[in-house]
Amino acid sequence: MLRVLGNILWFVLGGVLMGLAWWLAGLLALITIVGIPWARSCFVIGSFAFFPFGKEPVNRRDLTGRDDIGTGVLGLIGNIIWFIFAGIWLAIGHLMSALACFITIIGIPFGIQHLKLAMIALAPVGQTVVRSDTRFNTPLE
């Protein structure tokens, strides 16, 4: 019940803005055609940004126990390109939102979620989102 309440409060009090920012970044990446791999990450993490409570980001290598195209060298290169063009801006948005949330005691859990999202914003390729209670099961994609 607390998870549902937290997600509703999060969505109404600003989560919708950062979720839309992730989806906008995904749409811009789709337009370029070469940005399709980044777009997929944006949509998965954007959905997480809308309702983060009860979910957590994990590295796909940790989840599956093996490398894939996003967790190897190409993923590293993709994350460097992402950081330069979009990651830094999304991370700044989440950091500013976190600082605003930390002003009140009740906002501290929201600020912590923004900090998690800021870290993901720096390097989303190779990440996925899973339910917190079933961390090493299937992703939510």
UniProtKB/TrEMBL annotation:
Top-level taxon in the UniProt lineage: Bacteria
Key words, A-Z: Cell inner membrane, Cell membrane, Membrane, Transmembrane, Transmembrane helix
UniProt-listed Pfam families: YccF
Domain Inner membrane component: 5-55, 77-127
Membrane association type: Multi-pass membrane protein
Compartment(s): Cell inner membrane
Predominant place of localization: membrane
One GO location term (cellular component): plasma membrane
InterPro entries, A to Z: Inner_membrane_protein, UCP028777, YccF
Positions of transmembrane segments: 7-25, 31-51, 72-89
PANTHER family, alphabetized: INNER MEMBRANE PROTEIN YCCF
Record-given protein name: Inner membrane protein YccF
Organism: Marinobacterium iners DSM 11526
